[in-house]
Prior knowledge:
Pnp Oxidase, Chain A, 4 helices
Amino acid sequence: MNYQSLKPCSLLSPVPSVMVSACGPNPGDRPNIITVAWAGTVNTTPPMVSISLRRERYSYDLIASSGEFVVNLVDEKHCEALDFCGVRSGRDVDKFASLSMKPMPAEGMRYAPAVCGLPAYLSCSVRQIIPLGSHNLFLAEVVGVQVRDDLMNEDGSLHLEQAGLVCYSHGVYQRAADVLGFFGYSLAKPDVRRRRLAGYRKT
């Protein structure tokens, strides 16, 4: 099998494409949504995530001054809104109003709202800002999580595979893949493997 060399680049794909909502601490600050594809999990205890933003982005100062942001997971229904929030600046347009989307209080946040109607959100408190070059990385602790009711079973189990989440791959938005397995399925007994996978396919 042959390969071709590319110039070194950030080709890690696919990655989650999320809406990050924020608001500054000042009375005149307006809540904003920015699309971020450079977001990731970095630690378990305490739970921590990171996002990377260019210094000139409108949301950068909102997050830096408030010390918080909300990562909202996005479903297929809101994919066009996701794109809009990535190509329009909050300096020029009220994205919540333009998209007829509602900000709602986010668990553990003083200023940053969550985006109502999306599958789930993570409330994030900034612990460190790390200059990297073209982008600065916001390292944050997850202080609150809420998931839409329809993605939770009565037994308390979470079923994000039902959410139709959106991911991003080299300039293209894609559906998150169908369930191919579950953690540890390579070692599961055949009957457990069949039962678990059949359960996912019914969702």
